[in-house]
Amino acid sequence: MQATLSAEMLAALHDGIVIPAHPLALDENRKLDERYQRALSRYYLASGAGGIAVGVHSTQFEIRDKEHDLFETVLGMAAEERAKAKLDHPFIMVAGICGPTEQALNEVKIALKHGYDAALLSMGGLTDWTEEAILERTKQVAAQIPVIGFYLQPSVGGRIFTYDFWRRFADIENVVAIKMAPFNRYQTIDVVRAVCNSSRRDQIALYTGNDDNIVADLFTNYRFQVDGAAVEKRIVGGLLGHWAVWTNKAVEMLEQIKKARQLGSIETKWLTTNIEVTDCNAAFFDPAHAFSGCIPGIHEVLRRQGLLKGTWCLNPHEQLSPGQSEEIDRVYRDYPHLNDDSFVAAHLQQWLED
Known about the structure:
The protein is an alpha/beta fold and 354 residues long. 44% of the residues lie in helices and 15% in strands. The chain has helices at residues 7-15, 34-47, 71-85, 101-113, 131-142, 163-170, 185-196, 214-219, 247-261, 269-285, 294-305, 324-334, 341-351; strands at 18-20, 51-54, 92-97, 118-121, 147-152, 175-181, 205-208, 221-226, 229-240.
């Protein structure tokens, strides 16, 4: 039986929400630290985010390896924390789904078992698959759970897809959103144009994953000619690893952007904010070293705030790059208005309670 999003959740998704990509909390022995894992979920729930994505890149793909076997565990913990929070507003639980069709469908079963609302469907690791085969895989997953498509940049395991792929992708029933993270304007335009040319355009919400262009993405109104008529569409929110830190400030910023969009013109200060946010992302995500420090960089910010005990990853080779800690020092110093340290400090002990 096909799961679908409630009308309330669909409305929130299309209005635009902050969806952080949930990290993995480990102890010094690289074992799951349940106390801090739950504290992170509580942080995102309290921050005003509209959902969380669990089992995605920021949660570390190695959670699926037999030696760790943490996929269901971390999905279950986050789902339990949403239930405990007793929120009075929609909060969308997104499960990261990976691998060939059989693996993806097995992961969907686990996600549905724990009450997840949608799947962020990764196309990573399928480099030898045809676009046709990937579309068929998407249809099978969408027959079980609402799908959020995912255009991932090649430098971290993604691949380039044709405009025709995204045009056909948009036509798949139960595709409810697409996260665009190619870090490339041309490829981002391909997705938006493809959706605008689909009869399902109004059923698909567009989300940025372009950590190098977050604010500008959220302000851009795309317009294309479709059958002789102008069709417009916006990127309404973000599903971002970047928003795994300083989340409360990201929520504030998105609400300010929504209000500013209604004015029909953009104050030039937002162009400066776009660069400030991107500069912070450079410190966190480590493009200077081909993104090798992107997960430890997120961990380092959370460690400084007290939300993690260390920067450990399941893969011991994933560490902060040379100079990355100093870069995080710099953006903390240069952009104090973007961090939410005071918010975290006010609630941290409550989130860390058993």
